[in-house]
TrEMBL record:
It holds the Pfam family Nitroreductase. InterPro entries: Nitroreductase, Nitroreductase-like, Nitroreductase/BluB. One of its GO terms (molecular function) is oxidoreductase activity. Residues 7-129 form the Nitroreductase domain. Gene3D superfamilies: NADH Oxidase (3.40.109.10). This is Nitroreductase.
């Protein structure tokens, strides 16, 4: 590992592999909804044969953090945010894919893609050209706990 670099990447552009991963993930989540109660609301979507958890995007970018660095989650999350902001400058859209957590951090996946054992999944995201430009979301005021 290079000193000071707390992240590593896997980039998948093979549509068949992404479809296989999507199908495997959906099957796992549906069979294990009791372990993932926060996904229960998506049960019908996960059972839909046409739903692809990667939204048929052309690229899956997965960011892993080196657990030898205490700050790996923060560093990788900042890297993901910067990638997302930079993508907008090129007319690209991104989406953090929470459904992909189990599959992308599994031993089988890490072995197949040569991810060292001390790297932990931080962010699976898709990158592609959006079909429609979404309007900016409404801003909600953040709670301020102290102002003095």
């Amino acid at each position: 590992m290079l000193k000071g670099i707390a992240w590593g990447f896997v980039i998948i552009t093979d549509k068949n592999e992404m479809k296989r991963l999507s199908d495997e993930t959906k099957k796992h989540l549906v069979e294990n909804l009791e372990k993932y109660p926060y996904f229960k609301q998506y049960e019908n979507m996960l059972k839909d044969i046409n739903f692809n958890i990667f939204y048929n995007a052309p690229c899956l970018l997965i960011i892993y953090g080196d657990t030898n660095s205490h700050w790996h989650v923060y560093d990788c999350t900042l890297a993901a945010g910067n990638i997302m902001l930079a993508a907008v400058e090129f007319g690209l859209g991104t989406c953090w894919i929470g459904f992909a957590g189990h599959i992308c951090d599994s031993g089988e996946f890490k072995s197949k893609y040569n991810i060292p054992g001390h790297y932990k999944l931080v962010c699976p995201m898709v990158v592609g050209y959006p079909k429609v430009q979404l309007p900016p979301p409404d801003r909600k005021p953040a709670p301020v706990f102290f102002h003095g």
